[in-house]
Amino acid sequence: METWKIVLGLLPEKLSGAAAPYSTAEEIRLRLGRAPGIVLAGKEQSLSEARVSRDDLHRILEKATGASVHAAASGLSAGYIAYKGLRIGVCGEAVYIGDRLNGLRNISSLSIRIPHALSGDCGGLIDSILWPQPENTLICAPPGVGKTSFLRELIRRSAELPFRVAVIDERNELSASFAGEAQFDLGQGSDVVIGIRKAQAAMMLLRGMNPQIIAMDEITQEADLQVIEQVAGCGVLLYATAHGKNREDMKKRPLYRSLLEQGFFHTLVTIRCIGGRRIYERESLT
């Protein structure tokens, strides 16, 4: 997947040339009236001295939504737009219809998050999860450190063994599907549903696709725990991600403490970034 070309195609010409050499970038951050920023190895630095204009922000959104920002109102109300595997975070002024948030106007900031395929086997860690049989695996790391990339590679390797892996891709970040075709390789035995909340997607997959493994990104709310309980009760293995530095950090939050205490997951993978290098560690939760 040529993700970087997609990013450069979104940017105004005055910024795309400056950004071109930085194909390993993790984010590009654009704030109205300020110099653009680029995130490399977890640290933001200035991309150029050019100031971001309102027209720059609007043109990026027009490209990302097919020239129909209004058609993407539901995404804007969630704070982001998905575009060919990119997640574009959006800040601005709220627009309400009655009590319902209907979108944003007077856009002030965009954050273009750039996914990267994981290379290598993380020091044999993925093999240890898959052999002799796959394990219920929870992946935790702070935002932007590589949870989704690790999950994507774990899905791909599992689906090539082959296991039937059903993927709940709520924000279209795992598969980066476009016109029904995944832009990231998720393996021969994977099936993907996109843009559907976890609870509904899990029922669809359990009833219709007979999965051996269900994978989902970012456990963030109580309803997600109910989905996990439902999937586990059907004898289907689970892969999932969560925000946290490590096991002890996760225990500080009621949602994740409950998740760990219920014992759905057998393995915890933690990811840290030190000096631009990612460190992968595995521990048993049983």
The percentage of residues in β strands lies in 25-35%
Element order, helices and strands? HHEEEHHEEEHEHEEHEHEHHEE
Structural class: alpha/beta
Q: Can you tell me the number of structural domains? A: 2
Strand order of the largest sheet: 9-8-10-11-7-12-13
Q: How much helix, percentage-wise, in residues?
A: 25-40%
Named CATH architecture of the largest domain: 3-Layer(aba) Sandwich
Structural description of this entry:
The protein is of the alpha/beta class and 286 residues long. The chain folds into 2 domains: 3-113, Beta-Lactamase; 125-284, Rossmann fold (3-Layer(aba) Sandwich). 30% of the residues lie in helices and 30% in strands. It is built from 10 helices and 13 strands. It has a 7-stranded mixed beta sheet, with helices on both faces. The chain has a 6-stranded antiparallel beta sheet with strand order 3-2-1-6-5-4. The radius of gyration is 19 Å and the shape is globular.
Task: Give the SSE layout.
Blueprint: H1 3-10, H2 13-19, E1 27-31, E2 37-40, E3 43-46, H3 54-64, H4 73-78, E4 80-83, E5 86-97, E6 100-113, H5 125-130, E7 137-141, H6 147-159, E8 165-169, E9 190-194, H7 198-208, E10 213-216, H8 222-233, E11 237-243, H9 247-251, H10 254-261, E12 267-274, E13 277-284
Parallel strand pairs: 7-11, 7-12, 8-9, 8-10, 10-11
Antiparallel strand pairs: 1-2, 1-6, 2-3, 4-5, 5-6, 12-13
Task: Fill in the keyword field for this structure.
286 residues, alpha/beta, Beta-Lactamase, Rossmann fold, seven-stranded mixed β-sheet, six-stranded antiparallel β-sheet, 30% strand, globular
